Amino acid sequence: MRLRLLQMFVQVVRTGSFVAAARACHATQSTVSKALHQLEEEVGAVLVDRSTSPVRVTAAGEVVLAHALAMLEHAQQMRDAVAQLQGLQRGVLRLGLPPLGSASLFAPLFVTYRARYPQVDIELVEQGSHRLEALLVQGDIELAATLLPVPAALQAQFVMESRLVAVLAADHPLAERAEIALAELAETPFIFYEAGFALNAQLLDACRAQGFTPREATHSAQVDFVVALVAAGYGVAFLPELMVPQYRQRQTRFVPLAPAQGTWWRLALAWPRQRTLSAAAQAWLTLAQEALPARQVLKL
């Protein structure tokens, strides 16, 4: 039984859609459909109910899914073990990075990592922290940058912390302040990031701790678009201070949040607690420890 068939079946179950599974597998929808038919012929049972949307796994599919996940995990462990024996002469690093802060922090590490380990391929997934944590638990990626604290199923290596700044239109009444308390923004609509971003929940909790629930203007996964909405006067957004140099423009102002619960952005590299990291992932952690402490780390 080919692992590729199992990978496609797992993605169909996880996404509930042949179209989404095809995107995740970098294949066409017809290829995924044929793969699932072939797998069903091999096991002699229907694995998903195609009449529902999203598609639902059958009882037989549940059995196959459990074995498929175990087989895929064992296959990855085998590849990791071989890579370790080869001393990173070959290998794959399955890495997840969030849109916020990654350009400033991790882009230089890619260059150094490639120079040290030219035969190691980096498979990069870019999502919000919550989505990356789910991918870690599922085994789709091995290592990811995410916000602290991490779920109990993960362990983490601290990277850095940066205070959060409010991104305001230049004509906002608070735009020229040296510092702002979150509560002072209670009447300004909040522009949040998409649902997979851990910063959303952190900000909501911080606002509630200061006695209000913010009005949500909209959501977006594109930082450039979020800043453009602020410049147009649509609301307030938030960024870690280390990203400010990338987005300075005449139409916006960046005002630090007054120190309080939830007003700091704390980033870490995380991985599943029950899994042994590959040599490629261990090398990335080592490089991060070497390179990132030299950067400014802000303290409360």
UniProtKB/TrEMBL annotation:
GO terms for cellular component: cytosol. It comes from the Bacteria. GO terms for molecular function: DNA binding; DNA-binding transcription factor activity. Pfam families: HTH_1 (PF00126), LysR_substrate (PF03466). Keywords: DNA-binding, Transcription, Transcription regulation. The keyword Transcription applies. Residues 1-58 form the HTH lysR-type domain. InterPro entries: HTH-type_LysR_regulators, LysR_HTH_N, LysR_subst-bd, WH-like_DNA-bd_sf, WH_DNA-bd_sf. Transmembrane segments: none annotated. Belongs to the LysR transcriptional regulatory family. This is HTH lysR-type domain-containing protein.
